[in-house]
From TrEMBL:
Topology relative to the membrane: Multi-pass membrane protein
Protein name (database record): Protein-export membrane protein SecG
Cellular location(s): Cell membrane
Primary subcellular site in the record, as a coarse category: membrane
Length: 128
């Protein structure tokens, strides 16, 4: 179902691009500077066949966009992407496991116990 919708969506997108490119340019930004009576600002714009086809394709494109969104939302409600690959998610219960020393700092090579105030540890030089 999703593949069919996606193919129809792509065909509509290409058709919409083609129909928009086939339309005659009104000249100027949004047809405001044309000078003729059939521009965007006129009381009633001319509804050409290409204009009607453009509207129909645009409405169908939006409808397939909404349908694809609904299908994707239903698929994602079943679980996470990681569930599909069999990856275990980390547990969020409790605190993380700390190393034996209780510190997250890396060990200093050659220093027995580098915590301040204990004996046997190498003292750090004073900061300048």
């Amino acid at each position: 179902m999703e593949n069919v919708l996606l193919i129809v969506h792509m065909i509509l997108a290409l058709g919409l691009i083609g129909v928009v490119l086939l339309q005659r340019s009104e000249g100027g930004g949004l047809g405001l500077g044309g000078g003729g009576g059939g521009g965007l600002v006129s009381a009633r714009g001319a509804a050409t066949a290409l204009g009607k086809v453009t509207w129909a394709l645009a409405i169908a494109f939006i409808a397939t966009s909404i349908a694809l969104t609904i299908v994707a939302a239903q698929k994602s409600a079943s679980g996470s992407v990681l569930d599909r690959f069999g990856v275990d998610t980390p547990s969020t219960s409790g605190t993380p496991d700390l190393p034996a020393g209780g510190s997250l700092l890396p060990p200093v090579p050659g220093a027995g116990d580098a915590t301040p105030g204990t004996s046997g540890g190498a003292a750090l030089p004073p900061a300048d």
